[in-house]
């Protein structure tokens, strides 16, 4: 049997898929301090939510792309220095600006906003913000299926 991998399928059979084929992780993004997961809350813009992890994908399915986008279909996480909230934005709108780029520090389990160098933080388990990195549990994240 000469089966092709999933990346081959996305590139050759379904290139219009909203899922990027250059992903580094695919699945839920869980905060280690709160044990809650990032969630779109069914919205197309506005602040990203944080909810009990349900393991069913959907609103909690994210991909970290090789470029540094954290995507849910055609939505990207972004942040600006105005209020430090982590928001959902259409990726084609966000792509002209570095406010939607993140890197994952696998050793420290931190999601770092490239533009501000702040860490994604689960603030009081209610909202998601970027704050100066301090290695606290509310700044540590597990990315399902992460591949360095």
Automatic annotation (TrEMBL):
Going by the entry's taxonomy, the superkingdom of the source organism is recorded as Eukaryota
Start and end residues of each Ricin B lectin domain: 24-144
What SUPFAM superfamilies does this protein map onto?
A: Ricin B-like lectins
For this protein, the record's PROSITE patterns field holds: RICIN_B_LECTIN
Which regions span the lipid bilayer? Answer: none
Q: Name one GO biological process term.
A: protein O-linked glycosylation
**Cofactor names:** Mn(2+)
Its keywords, alphabetically, are:
Disulfide bond, Lectin, Manganese
Q: PANTHER family in the record, alphabetically?
A: N-ACETYLGALACTOSAMINYLTRANSFERASE, POLYPEPTIDE N-ACETYLGALACTOSAMINYLTRANSFERASE 5
Name of the protein in question: Ricin B lectin domain-containing protein
What organism is this sequence from?
A: Haemonchus placei (Barber's pole worm)
